[in-house]
Specification:
single chain; 112 residues; mainly beta; 4-stranded antiparallel beta sheet; 1 helix; 8 strands
C-alpha cells in the first residue's frame, strides 16, 4: 500500500505549500494504536505538517520554529511525543494528541 500512498501524500503536501520537505516520519507505524496513523513532514518553512495518510488530508500544522526543520523523531515509548530540530538552534517537543508544543530546548542563540 505504501507504494500507492506516498505519491498521493506528496501531492497533498505540495498542495498545502510544503514542497520544501526535508524529513518525513510515521509516529504510529506498528498497528497497535487506537488513534489514526499519522505522517509528519517538515522542511525549509519551519512548519511541521501532520497528515492522516489513510484519509489523505492534513489534520494539523505545528508552528513555532523560526527557521528550517531538519529532523523529526518520535518517542520510542510514547507515540504522541514528537521532537523537531531546527536551524534556529532549538529543539521542540510536541504533543501530537493536542497538536501543541509542550517544551522548547534552545541554545545560546535559540529561537524564542
Amino acid at each position: 500500500q505504501s507504494g500507492d500512498t506516498l505519491p498521493s501524500i506528496t501531492l497533498l503536501l505540495e498542495k498545502e505549500h510544503c514542497v520544501d520537505i526535508n524529513y518525513i516520519t510515521f509516529p504510529r507505524d506498528d498497528g497497535t494504536t487506537l488513534g489514526p496513523q499519522l505522517l509528519c513532514a517538515a522542511g525549509v518553512s519551519g512548519i511541521i505538517k501532520v497528515v492522516d495518510p489513510v484519509k489523505m488530508r492534513q489534520i494539523a500544522s505545528l508552528h513555532g520554529h523560526g527557521d528550517e526543520v531538519y529532523d523529526l523523531k518520535v518517542s520510542p515509548t510514547d507515540e504522541n511525543l514528537l521532537l523537531s530540530a531546527s536551524v534556529d538552534e532549538s529543539i521542540r517537543l510536541w504533543n501530537l494528541g493536542a497538536f501543541a508544543c509542550v517544551a522548547i530546548f534552545a541554545g545560546q542563540h535559540g529561537h524564542d
